[in-house]
Specification:
about 120 residues; alpha+beta; six-stranded mixed β-sheet; globular
């Protein structure tokens, strides 16, 4: 994978996230602040992320599939997240994660996630 050029916005390093939506379109979002992938999705009106619990790791309605190229850069899921992933509505895959549990950092620049076909 070719590293993306670093982007600066008013002196702040921007991190780019790509959301592959349920209709196969891709939304690109630039993040200039500390937030979870779920918060970024909600603030950017990404369809398919429900986040009913508001990011408390208590509902699994922010289920995403992390692109394989980024799996080694994302911290491993903790036990509570794994338990929630056991109950997701869409297929659970090895790259399934809850968006509320992934903090956006500059190391994740270019992160691509896929929104599952359903959250309920």
């Amino acid at each position: 994978m070719i590293p993306l050029p670093k982007r600066i916005f008013f002196g702040v390093l921007m991190t780019k996230i790509f959301f592959r939506l349920q209709d196969a379109s891709i939304r690109e979002v630039n993040v200039t602040h500390t937030a979870s992938v779920m918060q970024v999705a909600i603030q950017s009106n990404i369809r398919g992320i429900e986040a009913e619990c508001g990011g408390a790791c208590a509902c699994a309605t922010c289920h995403i599939y992390v692109d394989e190229a980024f799996m080694s850069l994302v911290p491993p899921a903790q036990e509570d997240e794994c338990e929630m992933l056991d109950g997701v509505a869409a297929e659970r895959r090895p790259n399934s994660r809850l968006a509320c549990q992934i903090e956006v950092t500059p190391a994740l620049d270019g992160l691509t996630v896929q929104i599952p076909d359903r959250q309920f």
